[in-house]
Amino acid sequence: MSHGVLGLPPTESRISQSLSQGEKFVDQYYKTFSKSASKYYSPSTRVIWNGTAMSGDQFLLVLPELQQTMGHFDVHAFDAQPVGSLTMINVSGVVKMKERVQFAQTFVVQKTGTMTYIVSDCFRLV
């Protein structure tokens, strides 16, 4: 039986680890978005922000403007699952802009030492 590109199915321990990592990441990312979200991105991060695809470098150039226009994030739900050695995190909630707007965001993240970096970020106002 072939398990494809992702290898063997994740163990319960790996699933639990991904959920814990996802919870910590979501808490830190949205609490610090307006000041230090850039620390989670690298030049090789792939970003699709509300339908616009860009590299991590390009995203870091527009991030300050986004930080100015997007206020407090209220996360209503999240889930995290292992994808090979990475973790996929799905988030939904409301962000305060001129008015409160629903959003959905999917991250693929990689933990390196004590830091979690974003490999891929797909954000959409809904």
Protein architecture, described:
This protein has 126 residues and is an alpha+beta fold. The protein has a domain at 7-32 and 68-126: Nuclear Transport Factor 2, Chain: A (Roll), CATH 3.10.450. Helix content is 31%, strand content 43%. The protein contains two helices and six strands; from the N terminus they run αββαββββ. A six-stranded mixed beta sheet has the order 2-1-6-5-4-3. A hairpin with a 2-residue loop joins strand 1 and strand 2. The model has no long low-confidence stretch (mean pLDDT 93).
The neighbouring-strand order within the major sheet is 2-1-6-5-4-3
Could you name the ranges where pLDDT drops below 50 across 5 or more consecutive residues? none
Instruction: Give the mean pLDDT.
Output: 93
Largest sheet: 6 strands, mixed
The structure class reads alpha+beta
Q: What is the rounded distance between the termini?
A: 40 Å
- In the CATH hierarchy, what is the class of one domain? Alpha Beta
CATH architecture of one domain: Roll
Principal-axes shape call = globular
The portion of residues assigned to helices is 25-40%
Q: Which topology of one domain does CATH recognise?
A: Nuclear Transport Factor 2, Chain: A
Quaternary structure type: single chain
How much of the sequence lies in strands comes to: 35-45%
Q: Could you tell me the number of beta strands?
A: 6
Task: Please tell me how large the radius of gyration is.
Answer: 15 Å
Along the chain, the helix and strand elements come as HEEHEEEE
Number of helices: 2
